Amino acid sequence: MSTVRLTGFTGHPKGERKTGLAVGMDKGHVLTSRDLKPKPSYRKGKLNKRVAFVREIVREVAGYAPYEKRTMELLKVGKEKRALKVLKNKLGTHKRAKAKREEMSGVLRAQRTK
């Protein structure tokens, strides 16, 4: 009876130690894994509380851009696809347009619940 061992990207079984031998499934030099501190670069893209607060205040004071207002009107009428096209034309990429459309529909949802 053979047992199935899960292997990672390298083909080495996950969670198993190397044997120190040059052949076999667990071949290779035996190393002790070190606990490394998380790199600051891992935080990239994570929203800071202060930044979120400042953005909220700016949105409150400045309001919405004309293209955002138009998008919200299109979403109110139920023209999601047209809203996406307007946003894609304005923002440049499909991914950004989808994110902005979700943001605008979230704003409308929040306005309805108030």
Q: Give the ordered list of helices and strands.
A: HHHH
Alpha carbon gyration radius: 26 Å
Helix residue percentage: 40-55%
* The top level CATH class name of the domain at 65-113: Mainly Alpha
Mean pLDDT: 90
Write out the CATH superfamily name of the domain at 65-113.
Ribosomal protein L36
Unreliable runs, pLDDT <50, ≥5 residues?
none
Strand content: under 5%
CATH architecture of the domain at 65-113: Orthogonal Bundle
Query: Which class do the helix and strand fractions yield?
Result: mainly alpha
Largest sheet: none
Kindly, what is the distance between the CA atoms of the first and last residues, rounded to a whole number of angstroms?
A: 64 Å
Global shape: elongated
The number of distinct β-strands equals: 0
| Number of contiguous helices | 4
Subunit structure: Component of the large ribosomal subunit.
Protein name: 60S ribosomal protein L36
Keywords: Ribonucleoprotein, Ribosomal protein
Region (Disordered): 1-20, 93-114
